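Batch manifest line 794
LIGAND: ANZ
JOB: complex structure
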Amino acid sequence: MKHIEIESKWQQAWTKAEAYKADNNSTKPKYYALDMFPYPSGSGLHMGHIASYTPTDIISRYKRAMGFNVLHPMGYDAFGLPAEQYAIQTGVHPAITTEKSIQSFRSTLQRYGFSFDWSREISTADPNYYKWTQFIFLKLFEKGLAYQKEVPVNWCPALKTVLANDEVIDGKSERGGHPVIRKPMKQWMLKITDYAERLLNDLDKIDWPERTKEAQRNWIGKSEGAIVKFKVKNTDSEFEIFTTRPDTIFGVTFMVLAPEHPLVKSLTSPTQTKDVADYIEASAKKSEVDRKANTEKTGVFTGGFAVNPVNGKDIPVWIADYVMMDYGTGAIMAVPAHDERDFEFATKFQLPVIPVVDSGTGEVPFFGEGKAINSGFINGLAKADAIKQMTAHIEEKQLGKKQVQYKLRDWLFSRQRYWGEPFPVYHENGQIKPVPMNELPVLLPEVANYEPSDKGEAPLANNKDWVKYGNGHRETDTMPGAAGSSWYFLRYADPHNSSAPFSPEAIKYWLPVDLYVGGAEHTVGHLLYSRFWTKVLFDVGLISIDEPFKKLAHQGMILGPDGEKMSKSRGNVIPADEVAKETGVDALRCYVCFLGPLDKDKPWAENGIEGVRRFLDRLSRLAVNDQTGESIANDETLPAEVEKLLHKTIKKVSQDIEAMNFNTCISSMMIFVNELYKHECRSKKALLPLAQLLQPFAPHTAEELWHSMGGNGLVVTAPWPKFDPALCQDDTVTMGVQVNGKMRGTVELAVAADEATAVAEALKITTVTAALNGAPPAKVIYKPGKILNLIAGK
Ligand code: ANZ
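JOB STATUS: finished
ARTIFACT:
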C-alpha cells in the first residue's frame, strides 16, 4: 500500500480511538509535552516547524507507552501584524485571514500524524480565549502592575505610527524610509521589574539550557553598587549618580548627565544654551541601539560644575548620549582612568585623567584590579575592601547609599494597532477604570479603516460608537502579541472552562510543563514574559506553581543543502510538504531525527531521506511481502544473538529517547534490522517489539506492521516493550590497564574473566611491561569489568 494511503487510514483510526486524548481525571502520572505554538501565517508549515514538533511528539508517544497520561496540545498564536497589514492593503478582516491560515495549519499538522489532543486546540484571537487574557490583565491592573506612562517611542510622523526598534534603520522607517523621531507617548507598561530578583533567582530551579539561563540573567542584569549625591556648585540643588565603583570616586574628573536629565536646563550656563539645545535635539533622533553602540563619543559641556563630596573639588558637568536616562539615575560620575567609555570621552574632549587604581606598571587607562592610590583614606586597599570602605563612608556621611540596580525595564505593553486584544479599561474624569468582569470579553470592534485615525490614534479610535463608554471613553490601544502567549500553556489544562481561565485542580494536576521545545530566539521575550505572568498568577492565588516550564530544549535549525539558513532568496528551501508527499511523513520524521542532535543546526542532505525511506521499506519487508501484501512473519524462537540484540536495542532506544538523542535511536534500529536480515529472522518475537520501538518515530509504518502481524489493538496505545537486563549484559568489556594507578593500555576481557587471565592479557602489552620494568606485578587490584591496577615491586 502506498504510504499516503496508510497515513490517512491510520490517522483516521487513531482519531476514532481518541488515542491521544489527555484525561483530566486520571490516576496515572502525568506528562506535559509542549511545543511553542505557531503564528498561523499564510505561508504554511515549514521545515522549522517539523524540526521542532517531531521531538516532542516522539517523547509524548514514548511517555504514553510508558504509562503516563500525556498532555500534548496544539494551538495558534493568532494575533499579529501580517494579517493586519493584509487587511490594510485589501480590506479583508484579519479574523478571516487568520481563520483561513488556521484551517490550513490544522490540516497540515493532522496530515503529519502528530499526536496532538485536538480537543484542546486554542487560538489567542478567539474571544473565548482573549476574554481570559483580559481577565489576567485586570489582575495585573488591580495589583498595580499595569500602569500608563509617557515613554519615548519611535514615532514616524509620515506613517502616523509607533515602530518597534527593529523597524527603524538609521533613523528611518524600514517601510518607506520616512524619518523617525523619539517622542514621549503614553503607553501601557507592565511592572516586570518588581519581579527582577525572583526571575533571576528562580532560574536555579529549572532545567533549561545554560546559555538560555545566562541570557536571561544578563537581560535582567543585576548590578550592585551605590547611589552618590553630588551638589551643584554655588546652589542648593544636588543630583544623584549610580556607580558600581564607589572606590574610584577620587578619580572623578567630570560628570555626565543624560541629555533628557531634568537638571540639564538649570545647570546650563547662558553661553552654553545653544550648544546644549542643539545636542539634545540631535540625540533625540538617535535610537537606543545607536546610543549604546560603541561609536565615537559625542557630548557638550553645560557650563555648570558639581562638587566632589569626598574631596570638595569642582567637577565640570557635561551631557552625552552614552548615558541613558532610564538606567540608574541617568547621571554618572566619570572616571576616565578606569572606565573605557569615560576614557574615550576624556580623550576626545581633553579632560584630565587621574589614576586611582594601581596597575603596577603605570598603565593608563587600566581596567584590571589593583590597590587604591590617590584616594585618601582608602589608599592601599584592594578593590572589594575599597568598595566596602567607601560605601560605608558614603552611608555614614549621608552622601548616598548602597544600591542594587537591574538592567531589566518594565514591559512596554501597548500597541497602536488593530489586531490585538482590546484593553478592558476606560477613561473617565481623568481616571482609568476597569470594565466590570461580567462585560468581558471586550470584543474587538469593527472598524472602517485598519490604519491609525486622522489624529494618529490607534485604529480602534475609528469606531466612535465603540469608544464611547458611559461618561468616558474606552482605551483604544491593543495588547502586544506576547500577551496571549504568556499564559496559553495554562489554558491547555482546561481549555473549555467558561467561568474561569482554568480550574485550580487542572493546573495542579498538569502544570508545570514537563518539556517545552521551541526556538532559541524566544530566550528573553516570550520565555521571560511567561515566567513573569506565572509568578503574578501564583501571587494572586490563581495557580499553584511559580515556574511554568520545568525543562526547556531548543531545536537547532535545519539548514539548506548548502549549509546556509533556508531562505527563498537563496533558493535553498526544502519544501516540507512536497517531501512528505513524495517520501512519506514517517521518512521525513525519521530523517529529521537522523540528521543529528536536536539542539544543533544541521544541513539537509539531498539524498539522505532516501536512505531513511529504504530503511523503513526494508524493515517492512521483514514482515510483509511487498508484492502481495501478505504477512510473512512467523513465530519462531529467536536465535540467541538476535534475542540479545533485541533487548539491548530496547534498552538503548529507551535511554536515548529519554536523553533526546533521537539520531542514535534510528541508528540502533537500523543495526537491529541488519541483524535480522543476517539471520533471516522474520519472527514476530522480534518484529512486534521493533514495531513498538519504531512507533514514536514512524507511527504509520509501525501501525501497519503491527496490524499485519496481528498485534493487539493499536501500536500507538500499546505499552512500551520491556528489556531483560541480564540479556543486555555485554559478553566482553574493554578495560583500562593501570600500572601504579597510571593508565598504560587497554585489554578486551570476558566479563567474568578471573584475575590470572586478566593479568596475563595485560602483560601482553609492551607499555605495561615497560612500566613494570619487566618484572611481575607485586600486587594486583582487580574488580571484573571495573578496574585492573598492577602495582610494581620496589
Ligand atoms: C564610575 C565608574 C568607574 C564606573 C569605573 C565604572 C567603572 P553596570 O555594570 O552596567 O551596572 N553608568 C551608570 N549609570 C549609567 C547610565 N544611566 N548610562 C550609562 N552608564 C551608566 O555599569 C554601571 C556603571 O555604568 C556605573 O559605574 C557607571 O560608571 C555607568 F572604573 O561609575 B561607573
